[in-house]
């Protein structure tokens, strides 16, 4: 009898142990799935954060922390208008002379060169006398964009000043390559 | 096990929050230098006042009381009181109107804090420093209604380095 009781107890203990063992494994499996997901997620988060901080460090220099604006030069516009309103030797406005002629006279060309010869440290401004016919453009001529000068692509703009519907001369404002 | 996961979650939260705070403070913690744009705006405003409708206003090249220039052109140099700016003045500009061909000067006056101009002169002499004002010189061509040709030169400078430079 005593032996039977001992066996029963041993069986109960064993069963309890087995049951506990089974419960433990069931819980562990669920946790492994979740933990693996978040372990990978953590690695991805850390990678993204590291890349973000690294790119911030690379592309951000506090000493050069300046806002860059698209270049719009109202003074160039004033000079252009004044150039067209200037009087030539015969008392006519340059605007009228250009409107009625097919090419720029040497006199106007010289005046234009004097006016638009401003050379700055950070950009170059000059006039190109492309008086001729052209298609009216709706492009915003004052905004900086890539311009092909000869064989080289640089930043700048060509400002077309239309004298009549199909006649214009061209101002160039170009920035040196970075 | 639950405790370990809680700590782990908390660690992830701290890492993400810390990184966000670090990136935001790095980006916004340094001042933006907008004096370039401010100076261009000041120069444009002066130019617009002198040349209101494509022709240079002839009153500026005849007998003109330069004391009235700031009020005539609606220019106000007032600044915020931070760093004692309101007492010292942070703006300067010099306006020259001269004959385009002969160079004869019709108008040559300076306005604002003249000390800033001295610092601009130092910069022209290639003396560099971090806390110097931003200086800009622009020249442009103009005519009056009689067809007289002028060269307008505007030198402008803005100090305000405390809020624009590290």
Summarize the structure.
In chain A, 49% of the residues lie in helices and 21% in strands. Chain A has helices at 2-59, 74-85, 94-100, 106-115; strands at residues 124-133, 145-149, 152-164, 167-175.
How is this structure best described in words?
The complex is a heterodimer of chains A (178) and B (166). Chain A is of the alpha+beta class and 178 residues long. Chain A is built from four helices and four strands, in the order ααααββββ. The relative contact order of chain A is 0.10. Chain B is of the alpha+beta class and 166 residues long. Chain B starts with a helix and ends with a helix. The model of chain B has no long low-confidence stretch (mean pLDDT 87). Classes of the chains: A alpha+beta (178), B alpha+beta (166). Chains A and B meet through α1 and α2 of A and α1, α2 and β3 of B.
Q: Which features would summarize this protein structure in a list?
A:
heterodimer, A: 178 residues, alpha+beta, 4-stranded antiparallel beta sheet, 4 strands, rod-shaped, B: 166 residues, 22% strand, elongated
Write the layout of secondary structure elements.
The complex is a heterodimer of chains A (178) and B (166).
Chain A: H1 2-59, H2 74-85, H3 94-100, H4 106-115, E1 124-133, E2 145-149, E3 152-164, E4 167-175
Antiparallel strand pairs in A: 1-4, 2-3, 3-4
Chain B: H1 2-28, H2 35-50, H3 69-72, H4 85-88, E1 91-99, E2 105-112, H5 114-124, E3 134-143, E4 149-158, H6 161-164
Poorly predicted residue ranges of chain B:
none
Helix content of chain A: 40-55%
Number of strands of chain B: 4
Radius of gyration of chain B: 24 Å
Overall structural class of chain B, as computed from helix and strand content, comes to: alpha+beta
Quaternary structure of the protein: heterodimer
The helicity of chain B comes to 25-40%
Overall mean pLDDT of chain B stands at 87
Shape of chain A: rod-shaped
Secondary structure tally: strands of chain A: 4
Count of discrete alpha- or pi-helical segments spanning 4 or more residues of chain B: 6
What does the main sheet of chain B amount to? 4 strands, antiparallel
Q: How much of the sequence of chain A is in beta strands? A: 15-25%
**β-sheet strand percentage of chain B:** 15-25%
Radius of gyration of chain A: 39 Å
N→C terminal distance of chain B: 49 Å
The global form of chain B is: elongated
């Amino acid at each position: 009898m005593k032996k039977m009781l001992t066996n029963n107890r041993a069986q109960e203990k064993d069963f309890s142990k087995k049951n506990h063992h089974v419960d433990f494994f069931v819980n562990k499996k669920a946790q492994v799935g979740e933990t693996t997901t978040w372990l990978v997620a953590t690695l991805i988060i850390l990678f993204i954060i590291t890349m973000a901080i690294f790119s911030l460090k690379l592309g951000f220099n506090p000493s050069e922390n300046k806002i860059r604006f698209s270049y719009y030069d109202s003074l160039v516009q004033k000079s252009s208008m004044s150039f067209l309103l200037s009087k030539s030797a015969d008392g006519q406005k340059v605007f009228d002379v250009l409107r009625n002629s097919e090419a720029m006279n040497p006199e106007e060309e010289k005046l234009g060169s004097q006016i638009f010869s401003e050379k700055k440290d950070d950009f170059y401004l000059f006039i190109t006398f492309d008086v001729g016919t052209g298609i009216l453009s709706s492009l915003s001529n004052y905004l900086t964009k890539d311009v092909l000068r000869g064989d080289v692509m640089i930043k700048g703009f060509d400002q077309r000043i239309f004298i009549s519907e199909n006649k214009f001369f061209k101002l160039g404002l170009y920035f040196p390559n970075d | 096990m639950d405790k370990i996961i809680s700590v782990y979650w908390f660690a992830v939260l701290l890492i993400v929050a810390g990184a966000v705070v670090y990136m935001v403070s790095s980006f916004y913690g340094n001042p933006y230098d907008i004096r370039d744009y401010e100076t261009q705006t000041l120069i444009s405003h002066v130019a617009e006042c002198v040349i209101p409708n494509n022709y240079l206003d002839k009153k500026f090249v005849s007998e003109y009381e330069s004391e009235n220039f700031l009020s005539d052109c609606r220019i106000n140099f007032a600044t915020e009181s931070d760093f004692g700016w309101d007492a010292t003045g942070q703006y300067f500009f010099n306006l020259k109107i001269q004959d385009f061909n002969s160079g004869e000067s019709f108008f040559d006056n300076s306005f604002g804090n003249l000390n800033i101009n001295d610092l601009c002169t130092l910069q022209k002499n290639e003396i560099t420093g971090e806390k110097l004002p931003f200086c800009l010189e622009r020249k442009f061509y103009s005519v009056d209604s009689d067809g007289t040709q002028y060269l307008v030169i505007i030198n402008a400078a803005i100090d305000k380095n405390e809020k624009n430079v590290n």
